[in-house]
Design a protein that fits this description.
The complex is a heterotrimer of chains A (476), B (222) and C (241). Chain B is α/β, with parallel strands linked by helices. Chain B has six helices and twelve strands. Chain B is 31% helix and 23% strand. In chain B, helix 4 (93-100) links the parallel strand 2 (79-82) and strand 3. Chain C has two domains: 3-117, Rossmann fold, CATH 3.40.50; 122-238, Rossmann fold. Chain C contains 13 helices and eight strands. In chain C, helix 5 runs antiparallel to helix 6 (96-106) and helix 7 packs across helix 9. Classes of the chains: A alpha/beta (476), B alpha/beta (222), C alpha/beta (241). Chains A and C meet through helix 1, helix 15, helix 18, helix 19 and helix 20 of A and helix 1, helix 2, helix 3, helix 4 and helix 8 of C.
C-alpha cells in the first residue's frame, strides 16, 4: 500500500463530495454505534466492564517486557518458532525467506493491519511472489489498490459495478453481476482454490496470552481459519503490545473487542493457537512461526505519554464515533490505520513530518476517549503530539511550524500577559476586523477568516468589549 | 541476530520508566452464572438462532440419528465427512451412512493430508462433528482440535452439523478456558464457532457462507 | 455564597460581550454579586490546543495569580473551565508549587449552569420563553466536565418552554477552535449537519452553553437559515440577545 498520509487535506475535500462514501458514512457509524450500545448491555455493569478493559491494557503495558518473555517461553515450549523482528524489513525478509525456502509461490493473508503497516505485499510482489488478501473487503481493496475505508469494512463503500468490473478484469468473473451476494460467492470460489493449495498462510494476532503462549484471532468470514488449517506453514505477526497476562483477561478483552468493533457479542470464529499442530493431527500447520515485531514501538514505549497509544486493541470503535471520520471516511488518513487511532498510530510509526494533518484534524470533542475500551485519551495525546511538533522534537521527526506562526503565539501570549496591551490591541484590531462588516456580521475577512467566511458568518467586533462594558455594569 | 534483537528490545523496554499497574476492579458475575441448566440450554439455543444457526433437540442417540438422516436428506447431502471425536465416534456414522445411502468418511480413511484436503475441499457436502462445549453466553460452540477433531471438517464444507450432548452447555467463555487451559495438555487449537461464516463487506449487505459453511445446524442431544 | 468572581472567556470579552452581560444579570437575579478582575485576558486555551505549552504556562500562571483567592469562580464556557480544572494541573505536572496552587484553584471553578444547579441548588431561575427549545450538548462541557443535565433542567424549569429532542445533540458541531480555520470544509460539513438537525427539530430556538459553538452554529445559520435563533443559555434565561 502506498503511503499517502501527506495528501490528507486534498483527499478529505474530495471525499466530502463523494456520494458513494457519503452513503456509508451517514449510515455505518450510526448503525455500528447503536449495535455497540445494545451489545454492551449484555454486561451486568457495562461501564465497569469497559473500565476493566483499560485496566487490563494498562497492566499489560506496565508488565510488557516480563509478559513478552513469558509468552515466548510458553509459546516456544508448545513448539512455536518465535522470531523477534526489529522492523518491517526484518519481518518481511523472514517471511520472504520462508516463501523461497518452501517454494510456496504465493501466500494468502488473513486480514491483518500489521502486515499492511509492514508493506509485506509490496516486498512479495517485488520478488515475484503473489499475495492474496482473503478477507473479502481487503481482497476488493487490494484489487482496486486502495487503502481501507474502514477497519471493519475496508471496501464497504465501493459500488457493486466497480466490484463487478475489477472481478471481471482480475479474477475472471465470467457472468457479470452486481448482486452483492453473487459477487461474494465469486470471491469465495476464487479464493477457495488458493486456500486448498496454499503452503503458507499469514495472519495477524488479536491477543497473545502470556500465561499459555497462545495467540488469538477473531473473524467472521473463516479466511483466518483457513490460513491456520490448510497450509503446512502458518506465520502470525504480532506487534509487541499484543501480549496480555492471562486467558481470563483475553476473554474479557474478546468481549469488548467484538462489541466495540461490530456490535457483535463475538465474531463467528475465534481461533486460539498454542503451538503448531500435534504430530498426529491431519491438518493445521506443521510449523507455526510467530513474529514479534517492534517497528518503533519500543521507542514509543520509552515515553510514558506516547506509550498510552499502545493500549489500542484495533476495535475501530473510535472511528464510528469520530465526527471528523464520519465526514471524510478512511481514505484521507492514507494508510492502514484511520480515525482517531490512526491519528495517533500513523504519526508515531511514520513520523510527525509525514502526518501533520493527523494530529491537527481533531476538534477535541472527546467522543473517542469516552468510548475507548482500552482507556486511551486520544484528544489529550494529540495535544501532546502537537506540542512535540511545535517543539520540533527530532525523535518524532517533527518539522516545527514556520517561525512566523511561532512568533504569532509569542506575541499573543505577550499581549495576553499585559491587560493594558490586550485592551489596546483589541481597540486597534476592531477596525481591521470589522472592515467589510455588514449588519453586524463579517462576510469577508482577512487571513485565516477568509475560508471560514465562505460558508459562515462571523460576528463583528462590537463597539465595546465586555471589559469596557463592565464599568457601567458594575454601577447598575 | 534475532537473539540480539530480542535482548535489545527487551532491554529498551526494561530501561523505560515502569508504569504503575492499575488496581483491578470487581466486576459483577455474568448473568449466565445464575441460570439453571435448562435456562442455559435455552439461552444457547436462542443466541445461536440469532446468528442464523439452526438448533434441534433430541432425546437420545436414536433420535439424533433420525434427525441427522432427515437433515442430510433435506440438504441433499450425498457425501459427508465426520470427525472421530467422543460424541460422533460412538454413532459410527460411516456404517450408519451406508444404510442411508450416504457416503460418510472420516479423516482416518485418507492416506495423507493431501488426499484428506482434496476430499474435504472438493468432494464432501457436509462436515459432521461433536463439540466439547456449547457456550450459552453467545450461542457458541467450542471445538478442541486434536487427532480426532480435524480443523477443516467444521470449516471447508458448505454445511456444518454439530452434535452436542446437553450436559456440555456451559455459561460463559471462561467455563471453557478454565478447563481447557489447566494442566499441560493444551490443545494446538481451540476454536469458538458462533453461527455460519459471514460477511457484510460489500455494501454492508450481510450474507452467510463467505469462506466457511453457509449453514450451521446443531443437534442438542439429551 | 454571596459573591462570585467572573471568569470571562476572551471570545466573550472581544466578540460576544452580551453573553458576559447576561451572565452578570442572571447571577444578580439569583442574589449573587459578581466581581470582575479586570486584569484577566485569556486562560490560554487556544494556545494550549495549538501545542504551545510554553506560552500557555505563562498565561496559566497569570490566571492562577489573579483568581486564586476567590471563593468561587464562574464562567459561561465549559471549554475554559475544563482548561483550568483539568489542563492546568497537567501543565504544571513538574512544577510542584504551581501544581498545588492550580489544583487548589481547580475545585472552585464552575461553569455557569453547573454553578446554578449544583452549587446554588436552583433550577427555576424565574425565566420564561414561549416555544420549543432544542439543546446542543457541547463537547467540553458534556464529555469534558460531565455537565449534561444541569442546563436541561434550567431549560425545563423555564415557564412556557418545551424542551424538544435534538438528533445527535451530543455530536460535535465542528468548531474545535483553530480546527474550524485549519479545516474549514470539514468543519462546515459538521456544522451543516448540526444546523440540519436543528431545523428538523422544529424548535424555535437552539440553546447552548458554549461561546465557541455559538459562534460556529449561529454563523452557519445566519448565512443559510436567516431568522433562526441560537442563544447562549445565559441569554436564554435572562431573555436577552
Amino acid at each position: 500500500m502506498e503511503i499517502k498520509t501527506e495528501q490528507f487535506v486534498e483527499t478529505a475535500k474530495r471525499e466530502l463530495k463523494n456520494p458513494n462514501s457519503r452513503i456509508f458514512l451517514n449510515l455505518l457509524p450510526v448503525v455500528l454505534s447503536s449495535l455497540r450500545e445494545l451489545a454492551m448491555e449484555t454486561f451486568p455493569d457495562p461501564d465497569a466492564a469497559q473500565e476493566m478493559g483499560g485496566i487490563i491494557r494498562g497492566e499489560a503495558l506496565a508488565r510488557l517486557p516480563e509478559l513478552l518473555e513469558t509468552f515466548e517461553k510458553n509459546a516456544s515450549a508448545a513448539g512455536a518458532k518465535i522470531y523477534w523482528a526489529k522492523d518491517s524489513q526484518a519481518a518481511n525478509e523472514y517471511i520472504l525467506n520462508l516463501v523461497l525456502e518452501n517454494q510456496a509461490g504465493y501466500i494468502t493473508k488473513g486480514k491483518s493491519m500489521v502486515t499492511e503497516e509492514m508493506g509485506l505485499n509490496e516486498l512479495m510482489i517485488k520478488n515475484g511472489i503473489e499475495v492474496w488478501e482473503t478477507d473479502l473487503g481487503e481482497f476488493i481493496a487490494q484489487l482496486l489498490a486502495r487503502p481501507p475505508f474502514h477497519i471493519v469494512g475496508p471496501a464497504v463503500n465501493v459500488p457493486v459495478d466497480q466490484i463487478r468490473d475489477v472481478f471481471m478484469e482480475k479474477i475472471g468473473l465470467d457472468k457479470p453481476t452486481t448482486d452483492p451476494v453473487e459477487l461474494g460467492y465469486a470471491a469465495r470460489r476464487f479464493l477457495r482454490d488458493k486456500f486448498h493449495e496454499m503452503k503458507i498462510g499469514v495472519t495477524g494476532v488479536n491477543f497473545a496470552v502470556a500465561e499459555t503462549g497462545t495467540i488469538i484471532n477473531v473473524e467472521n468470514e473463516g479466511n483466518i481459519r483457513f490460513n491456520k488449517s490448510s497450509p503446512k506453514i502458518q506465520v502470525s505477526v504480532m506487534t509487541i503490545e499484543k501480549v496480555i497476562p492471562d486467558m481470563k483477561d483475553a476473554m474479557h478483552l474478546l468481549r469488548l473487542l467484538c462489541r466495540n468493533c461490530t456490535g457483535q457479542h463475538i465474531g463467528s470464529y475465534v481461533t486460539m493457537d498454542t503451538g503448531p499442530k500435534k504430530e498426529d493431527e491431519i491438518d493445521g500447520p506443521e510449523e507455526l512461526h510467530i513474529i514479534i515485531l517492534d517497528n518503533g514501538r519500543s521507542q514509543i514505549f520509552q515515553d510514558t505519554q506516547t506509550r498510552e497509544v499502545l493500549r489500542c486493541i484495533r476495535c475501530g470503535g473510535c472511528l464510528n464515533i469520530c465526527p471528523v471520520y464520519g465526514m471524510i471516511g478512511g481514505y484521507p488518513y492514507g494508510w492502514a490505520y484511520s480515525g482517531p487511532m490512526g491519528q495517533l498510530l500513523a504519526p508515531l510509526l511514520l513520523g510527525l513530518n509525514r502526518c501533520h494533518d493527523h494530529i491537527w484534524a481533531c476538534t477535541s470533542c472527546q467522543a473517542c476517549k469516552v468510548n475507548c475500551p482500552a482507556g486511551i485519551d486520544h484528544p489529550g495525546l494529540l495535544l501532546y503530539l502537537r506540542n512535540k511538533e511545535v517543539e520540533g522534537d527530532s525523535s518524532l521527526k517533527a518539522v516545527p511550524p514556520a517561525w512566523t506562526e511561532s512568533l504569532s503565539y509569542k506575541v499573543f501570549s505577550r499581549i495576553a500577559s499585559n491587560p493594558m496591551l490586550w485592551r489596546l490591541t483589541s481597540k486597534l484590531m476592531r477596525p481591521v476586523i470589522n472592515r467589510g462588516a455588514k449588519d453586524g456580521k463579517l462576510k469577508k475577512g482577512p487571513g485565516p477568516l477568509a475560508d471560514w467566511l465562505k460558508g459562515r458568518d462571523f460576528p463583528e467586533m462590537p463597539e465595546k468589549t465586555f471589559h469596557e462594558r463592565w464599568s457601567e455594569l458594575k454601577r447598575s | 541476530m534475532t537473539k540480539s534483537t530480542k535482548d535489545e528490545l527487551l532491554n529498551r523496554l526494561k530501561d523505560a520508566q515502569t508504569g504503575k499497574i492499575p488496581a483491578r476492579i470487581d466486576l459483577p458475575p455474568p448473568f449466565e452464572n445464575a441460570l439453571s441448566k435448562e435456562e442455559l440450554i435455552e439461552k444457547f439455543t436462542n443466541k445461536l438462532i440469532e446468528q442464523e444457526g439452526v438448533v434441534y433437540r433430541t432425546n437420545n442417540q436414536t433420535g439424533t440419528l433420525e434427525k441427522l438422516a432427515q437433515i442430510l436428506a433435506q440438504e441433499g447431502v450425498k457425501k459427508a465427512m465426520a470427525a472421530e471425536d467422543d460424541v460422533v465416534k460412538p454413532l459410527d456414522l460411516p456404517a450408519w451412512g451406508k444404510h442411508q445411502g450416504i457416503e460418510i468418511t472420516t479423516q482416518f480413511d485418507y492416506k495423507n493430508r493431501e488426499s484428506f484436503k482434496e476430499s474435504i475441499f472438493n468432494q464432501v457436502d457436509a462436515g459432521i462433528t461433536g463439540a466439547d462445549f456449547a457456550i450459552a453466553e453467545s450461542g457458541t460452540l467450542a471445538l478442541v482440535h486434536d487427532k480426532y477433531q480435524a480443523r477443516l471438517i467444521s470449516l471447508a464444507p458448505i454445511l456444518h452439523i454439530a452434535v452436542v450432548p446437553v450436559e456440555r452447555v456451559v455459561p460463559v467463555y471462561e467455563s471453557v478456558t478454565e478447563k481447557v487451559y489447566q494442566g499441560d495438555n493444551t490443545p494446538s487449537q481451540l476454536t469458538l464457532i458462533t453461527g455460519p461464516s459471514m460477511t457484510a463487506d460489500i455494501q454492508g449487505i450481510m450474507f452467510k457462507g463467505m469462506h466457511g459453511p453457509r449453514r450451521l445446524i446443531v443437534i442438542l442431544m439429551d | 455564597m454571596k459573591t462570585v468572581s467572573l471568569f470571562i472567556p476572551c471570545l466573550v470579552d472581544l466578540f460576544l460581550p452580551d453573553i458576559g452581560e447576561a451572565t452578570v444579570t442572571l447571577l444578580r437575579k439569583l442574589g449573587i454579586d459578581t466581581i470582575y478582575h479586570d486584569g484577566q485576558t485569556c486562560c490560554g486555551q487556544p494556545a494550549f490546543h495549538a501545542g504551545r505549552r510554553l506560552e500557555t504556562v505563562q498565561l496559566a500562571k497569570r490566571f492562577v495569580e489573579i483568581f486564586e483567592t476567590d471563593e468561587a469562580i464562574v464562567c459561561p464556557s465549559g471549554t475554559c473551565v475544563l482548561m483550568v480544572k483539568k489542563h492546568y494541573p497537567d501543565l504544571f505536572a513538574d512544577q510542584p508549587e504551581w501544581l498545588e496552587r492550580a489544583k487548589n484553584l481547580a475545585d472552585r471553578v464552575y461553569e455557569l449552569s453547573q454553578f446554578i444547579v449544583d452549587v446554588l441548588g436552583i433550577e427555576d431561575v424565574g425565566a420564561s420563553f414561549e416555544g420549543k427549545v432544542a439543546y446542543h450538548e457541547s463537547c467540553q462541557l458534556s464529555r469534558g466536565l460531565g455537565v449534561v443535565e444541569q442546563p436541561k433542567k434550567l431549560i425545563q424549569a423555564t415557564a412556557g418552554a418545551e424542551l424538544v429532542p435534538l438528533q445527535n445533540a451530543s455530536v460535535c458541531c465542528g468548531f474545535g477552535g483553530h480546527f474550524s480555520f485549519n479545516y474549514p470544509e470539514i468543519s462546515e460539513a459538521l456544522v451543516k449537519e448540526k444546523a440540519d438537525h436543528f431545523m428538523s427539530s422544529e424548535a424555535d430556538v437552539l440553546v447552548l452553553s458554549e461561546p465557541g459553538c455559538y459562534l460556529n452554529i449561529n454563523g452557519y445559520l445566519s448565512r443559510h437559515h436567516p431568522g433562526s435563533k441560537v442563544m447562549h443559555i445565559a441569554n436564554f434565561l435572562t431573555g436577552s440577545g
